[in-house]
Records
---
Amino acid sequence: MVSNVTIGAPRPAPSFTPVFVAIDRQLLAAEGLTATIKYRAHATDLVSGEVDFLASGHGHVEFVKGSDIRIVCGHSTRGGAHVLVVRPEIDHVKNLKHVLVAAEENVFELRNILAHYGVDLDSSGIKLTMIDGSHPKQFEALQRGEGDGATLGAPWWMYAVKEGYKNVGSGDEFGHGLPGSGIYVAAKKIKENPDQVSRFVKAYVKTIKYCKENIPETLQTIMKYSADWGVNNLEVAKMAYDSAAPYWNPSVDPTAIDRLLKVTSEKLGKPPVAAEKFLELRFLQAALQETA
């Protein structure tokens, strides 16, 4: 039986290419799932039923806050992929006065980058301006003369470097602690429609393998889905692919998740939560065995 599902993602960025490929290359269709994408989706959309599956790096935060969601498979092992670019005249990050960010995760990344250079963000006096979730808008603001640095994702940090901005590093280069991203599902859906979850996870495991083995086709899909995000030619698509693809992985590390939940609970001032309540990996285990 064919099921219609909606997949949530923060934005049409190339880092979410496996989601695009799963739809575009009919890997979900092969499992009887007809899928559409909803951008700017959050955990609340999972719980309300507006989206069925969510690709995100923040599911653990929402779970600690009380959202009844579960992680069913991985998406990327990389956390902190945004790059801090600064104007050419900035000879050291200690001279930064104003940085443009797009989300709270960028602040975490920025803190790691600055610490590598001996600068403490909290005592530095650096002004942060939040540009609502949009790296293109951050880049446009930089070009207008706003700020003297910004945390940008691919391909926008690449465009910035081409225009002469300096790449001074990314969050994952200078201190881990950010999670990778995963695929999240409402606990209610798992209970009421486990077959649909199973089919999705099976397709997603195959999708990530496809992305690694079929690069030309994957690049075409990147250009198709991320054109509005600035990926407007094959060269840019390949650069974006090269920066993200090595980290795409459907597996989930329970030990890392447990550590992440503990750290998140402490930061949010919430009671600690057990990883086993957040992990729902039986579908993943079955899919990995089937595709081995």
Note: The chain has a mean pLDDT of 92.
---
Amino acid sequence: MKAPARMFQLSDWYGADWDHKKPVDDLWVSPWAKAHYKLRQQEIEIEQCEYMLKQAVEAEDFAEADGLRTRVERLRSQHPITPREERLTEAIEEQNFALAQVFQNDLDAVKTNLGLPKYNVGQAIKHAHREGLRGIVLDVDLQCGKGRSWIHEAGCLERGCAVDMPSEEMDISQLRSWANQPFYLVLLDLAELKDEQAAEEGAQTWRWKWPRELAAWEVNHFAEVPAPLYLPEEALVLDFNDEAAPSHPEMDAHFSTYEMYPHRGRVYQPTPRLRLWQQQRQKDEQESRRQRGAFDISSKNPYDRMR
């Protein structure tokens, strides 16, 4: 196992004439949105091929299975992240920690060059400052997609929680940089939030422990489960708890199996239903922004655009 000769560059993917400062197509999130979208589509194609491969094997159509297996191997080898993560896992399993650090640095550099978020869909995470808040990433936005009022309320709460200060004492001028980071839709672990007394009486209620300002969307009080949370990247860390899996009534609808990695913890495989929902969410968000009218595409900060 050899360390990579050099770091991955974005031009390796798009060609030498790639200009990250030039707007691309109908881009509205950031100059890196196209790279993020392309990577997501590549991952979905790999998942679809793996699903068809499993069906072909079960049907004993071995010729089709061989073709699909070759296709999956080719797609995975072309993925800028997956092969590096596999090398990193192998180095850790072999306890070659010096080489593992080289692979980790290379992986971090690739993600930085691609403008990718730190955590992927299906990653088990927990909140760095709110005890007991853990869950699984449902979707990722490269920057905060909420409006100014949400950024003001949630930003003051989260930054205040990080430094142990009341939200009303936070400097709102710093919210612009706070909003300019990846944000995650997180499916909550509800194991400790269920109201056991209500459950015994046949009701499905939950003891909400977190600020409602962090909710990804408003939910009717009679909804079966709380809404996912919308959390900034700086507030999240990996969850390495392999003894207690996150519990949620909709887990099976969104995720199937999972793998446990020494450097990433628990990572779940998204279901086709979740992928379709992600694609529809992106389309709905783009259409919503178009309907709001013209805006300055050169502005990288949604806090500025919503003023």
Note: Residues 10-114 form one domain.
